[in-house]
Amino acid sequence: xxxxxxxAAAGYTRMVSDAFAAWExxxxxxxxxxxxxxxxxxxxxxxxxxxxxxxACFRATGVQHRVLNRAETEAxxxxxxxxxxxxxxxxxxxxxxxADRIVRDLARLAEALGVTMMPHASxxxxxxxxxxxxxxDGQVIAGDAMVVAAGAWCGALWPSFADLPVMRQxxxxxxxxxxxxxxxxxxxxxxxGDNGGYTLPGVAGTQLKFGYGAHRRPGNPDEEGWQxxxxxxxxxxxxxxxxxxxxxxxxxxxxxxxxxxxxxxREFRVETEGRTIAIGNCDGQMFKFGPLMGERxxxxxxxxxxxxxxxxxxxxxx
Length: 318
What we know:
This protein is 28% helix and 23% strand. By secondary structure, the protein is of the alpha+beta class. It has two domains: 172 residues, D-Amino Acid Oxidase, subunit A, domain 2 (D-Amino Acid Oxidase, Chain A, domain 2); 93 residues, 3-Layer(bba) Sandwich (FAD/NAD(P)-binding domain). The mean pLDDT is 97.
């Protein structure tokens, strides 16, 4: 999900505008727009919650938005159990980025431009100053510059990232209750109060997706793998019963497991050494900023942005 809503995090809220601009440059290059602008909404439950913090941030940063009163929110999103003091903070553009389609077409574009793709090649060591990577088969690859973006494995290649906790998260794709099927084509839900659940509408051939922050836990992809144990789908959906009507009428379809690094700051970390730039603490949030991060990293490699400025910007402090 790409959206402007970031609670009180003004730096990342402002960054989203640049992220949208970067995506607009990418779509013509890959030949298709893998994004649907459904809009995105945060719904208030109690004073000071995520929607309240987002609203204050929008007003401070000048992000265009609409505040929906309780009746308007219920009319737009009848599937949610609103509280007496509920209201909605709606902003667009916002909605799902279709990551698998994007990565597929990016790979095709890279190959067409002459990039050598090396699927299933495992990097076991790097030399930041020499900008070299050693593969498991002993091959050494050298470049003018190197970018380390190893996700959950970043700590194995970049020692100062070894302190970053690796988290396991699982998302559940569901068939909605028939009575609310049309409503689920509406805006993506960023937050309902501080409950920690979010939803992405099933559009453009995709399925409704539920993600629940409280389901996230420490994990190790090399030890646990990517399979979901029996019953995990219902565990995820249980978190939505508190604010989604008739949750028992929803049918789980499949669970997708992923891993990423995330510490308490939830700020992207960018570090440089020699001819290498390393990116970590992506918190499951980096994909929406991918093209923009790529632009800034290349600008740093080419000397247009200093290392300290890049680090500060990535942390949302610019």
